[in-house]
Here is the input.
Amino acid sequence: MNLIMDTLGALALATERPYDELMKRKPVGRYSEFISNVMWRNIIGQAVYQLAILAILQYMGKEILHLNDNENNADKLLNTMIFNAFVFCQVGVFSFLSFLFLPFFLLLMRSVLSFVRKFLI
Here is the structure.
């Protein structure tokens, strides 16, 4: 899990172009806020979004993904889908797209489920 989180953060920092205006700014004070209000809004918004998606999958995932409780691998499949949803939520573009295109997100999750189901059964 750490590898996923650290890699995405490093890629985000590595792909940003440096610009001269940053070097011309005055230094930030020692006791000034490190996280701005916009950052707090984004952090809280992303946390609420991820908690909502993961809670829906945790508590209603079997109904949404049409898993039978009689299947031996239903719990494994659901846990796999929850993990995949968590990883997909870490990618900012996917988070934005899945929020706008929820039917596409569900279709993608179902296709991943059918792919995983082939290997577990």
Summary: The two ends are 26 Å apart (CA to CA). Residues 34-120 form one domain. The mean pLDDT is 77. The CA atoms of residues 77 and 116 lie 7 Å apart.
